[in-house]
Amino acid sequence: MSSHLANLEHLRALRLPDARAEYERQLQDATVESLHFIDRLDLILDKEITMRHNRRVARKLREASLRVMAYKEEFSFETHRGISRETFASLTSLAFMDKGHGLIITGPTGVGKTYLGCLVGMEAIRREYSVRYLRTSDLIERLSLARADGSYRNLMANLRRLDLLILDDFGLSPVSVTSSRELLEIIDARVDLRSTIFLSQFPVAKFHALMEDATAADAIMDRIIHASRVIELTGESMRKVKAQEESNQDEEGG
After folding, report:
1. How far is CA 10 from CA 2, 21, 59, 142, 236, in A?
2. CA–CA distance, 232 with 105 (Å, rounded to integer)
3. In principle, which of 5, 116, 146, 229 could form an S-S bond with 155, CB 3.0–4.6 Å?
4. pTM of the shown model
5. Residue 211 carries which DSSP code?
6. Whose CA is closest to 226, among 101, 121, 118, 134?
7. What is the largest CA-CA distance in the chain?
8. Average pLDDT over the chain, rounded to whole?
9. Degrees to nearest 5, angle at CA 132 with 200 and 101
10. Are 193 and 99 in contact (CB under 8 A)?
11. CA-to-CA distance for 7 and 3, rounded, in angstroms?
12. What SS3 state is found at 126?
């Protein structure tokens, strides 16, 4: 067996498929022969590391179930959401996650809360954090079903372990006494350890009234307010703005 075949077999045995593919590519590329050994080895290892990272990111993205695919490179400040470049840079640096802090994003319907929340979630996924997006009503329904079928403890354990939990439409429907207490259990297990993003059309001052259990509401507010950054988005509905832009384009085209 030639040394090249032996090397390919070793890479296969070590379960380094992408390094093996890069090694095979180099064997067929005459221009690579001029490179130093270390440079060729760097290419082989970089290929394996990059592909492994990409696969992990793809898996975490599927698990996250983000409502919107949003990337920080595509964010536009021209829509006047009321967020500065400095604030945006701070959010996408994920510094709040390093501290186990939370994030509360409020604003009128359609102003871009979900978009911004998912954008932060996408940045976290890129850095291989575990992320999960849920509408608050869906979370409450899942907790109820889990309690009924005996999987409640497993579901709660999974929610506790997530690096970033994104709860959208918080307060859109009243949070019952039971759901308030379950929400408190989740937040209590995550505060100062794992980050949670709340997206709501209601200002923070009204959060307490959205929960039917006043005692649980007190405890929840105490935990999230003191360990969360609040971002208040402003401006018109993005859907309205987009519709107006399309209408203007149609008129110009006509």
Report:
1. 12, 13, 27, 47, 60
2. 6
3. 146
4. 0.84
5. B
6. 101
7. 75
8. 89
9. 65
10. no
11. 6
12. helix
